[in-house]
Amino acid sequence: MIYIEEKNTTKVPGITSLYLKFDYKQEIVDAVKSIDCKYYNEKEKIWEIPLSYTTQLIDKLCLYDDIELKLKKECKSLK
User: Fold this and answer.
1) Which residue, 49, 58, 68, 62, is CA-closest to 7?
2) Sign, CA torsion 6/47/50/69
3) Residue 78 above 80 pLDDT?
4) How many other CB atoms sit within 10 Å of the CB of residue 58?
5) Is residue 1's pLDDT more than 90?
6) Residues 42, 44, 45, 48: what is their CA dihedral angle, to the nearest 10 degrees?
7) What is the tens place of the pLDDT at every residue in 26-68?
8) Which residues pair with 71 in a beta bridge?
9) What's the 3-state SS for the chain?
10) What is the pLDDT of residue 74?
11) What interhelical angle do 26-33 and 54-61 show, nearest 10?
């Protein structure tokens, strides 16, 4: 299973990022590495990818394992 969660960005451009966790599979690592903009946090063993790569990322990863995607809920302000 590949777990993807949208959170505030820390190392890549944008307001929010996708954070990926998965059991090691070389095919998945290679697919993630093929994304132009990414960051790997060695301490937490998690990948960070800009939200703008969502479609490209899912297209690549769905070939290798099931995906659980958790996106942030849109916050609507009242004016």
Assistant:
1) 49
2) negative
3) no
4) 14
5) yes
6) -90
7) 999 999 999 999 999 999 999 999 999 999 999 999 999 999 9
8) none
9) CEEEEEEECCCCCCCEEEEEEECCCHHHHHHHHCCCCCEEECCCCEEEEEHHHHHHHHHHHCCCCCEEEECCCCCCCCC
10) 74
11) 150
pLDDT at 76 over 80: no
**Amino acid (1-letter code) at residue 28:** I
- The whole-angstrom separation of Cα 77 and Cα 79 is 6
Q: What strands, in cross-sheet order, belong to the sheet with 46-50?
A: 39-41, 46-50, 16-22, 2-8, 67-70
pLDDT at 73: 84
Structure tokens belonging to residue 39:
């960051």
Amino acid letter, residue 51: L
